């Protein structure tokens, strides 16, 4: 075997392994047909079908997980918010969907009615020692942990949503103590080393 043959074999094996790996994406959860129909109905704003599917499958979470998400990580509630379908939002909340960061999505979309509804819902179900729904999100959230509803509303420059949040007692988180930042600590150490 000459060197060029072995080199070509190596290159073809690498190309084959790269193409196989690039086609295989990690899949955590595959949507079933009922869940696909559920999410499509929510996207289209079909409240009756969404409600019927949830009620038919309420005892079968293996067939329909009400909190399932599409490949873009959107739940039925997020789809309802994006499509400004207040009726569907109400139905989903009544039927027990997890809210997670839906309030942040409603603020991002500047959908005031949804913000009001989600705030009212949060006031009804919130337990004093528990974090709020947008604080308890996991790594699947589209928002970083430092984004609060008030910060996002200010970023969007939406006075009406800001007023809603402030009237309900929203506050900004306390910033870190300036003397504890890495730059200040390093400067202090440098000054001490000079003495």
TrEMBL record:
Repeat region (ANK), residues: 145-177
Gene3D superfamilies: Ankyrin repeat-containing domain (1.25.40.20)
Source superkingdom: Eukaryota
Any GO BP: regulation of cytosolic calcium ion concentration
Taxonomic source organism: Lasius niger (Black garden ant)
Annotated Pfam families: Ank (PF00023), Ank_2 (PF12796)
Protein name from the UniProt record: Transient receptor potential protein
Molecular functions (GO terms): inositol 1,4,5 trisphosphate binding; store-operated calcium channel activity
